[in-house]
């Protein structure tokens, strides 16, 4: 359902939150190893998440990625939108350019119901809350399934 980039982003942010809760900042190399993703690809995802303020970063010898009070409001939907865009939430499921409320495609109304439930599920908990619920060593995606 989510792109590979989004899956890496989810696992990265959960890891960052868990480390931040014990007062640690983490580097891109450590995060990439944890999420089992290429370091340059992970770094690119992390940079975008920092740019959109879902996580923070600090340069220097004691630097790294972190999450704090200013990041508590963000949800899984926010992360999905940053990495994959809004297409999952408002694009035509058949890929038609003319699909809209006034000119719906054959699946429009059925998909609309599913999207309402999806948005509700992805906004129910903050990323911080998800991190708190994920057990050590357990991947976020298996926990959410």
Structure description:
The chain has 145 residues and is mainly alpha-helical. It has one domain: Arc Repressor Mutant, subunit A (Orthogonal Bundle). The protein contains eight helices and two strands, in the order H-H-H-E-E-H-H-H-H-H. The protein has helices at residues 4-20, 28-35, 39-51, 76-84, 87-90, 108-123, 127-133, 140-144; strands at 56-58, 64-66. It is elongated, with a radius of gyration of 17 Å.
Q: Can you tag this structure with a few keywords?
A:
145 residues, mainly alpha, Arc Repressor Mutant, subunit A, two-stranded antiparallel sheet, 2 strands, elongated
Brief overview, please?
The chain has 145 residues and is mainly α.
Number of helices: 8
Report low-confidence residues grouped into runs of 5 or more.
139-145
In which range does the helix fraction lie? 40-55%
Question: CATH H level: which superfamily?
Answer: Winged helix-like DNA-binding domain superfamily/Winged helix DNA-binding domain
SSE topology string: HHHEEHHHHH
Biggest sheet record: 2 strands, antiparallel
Strand elements, count: 2
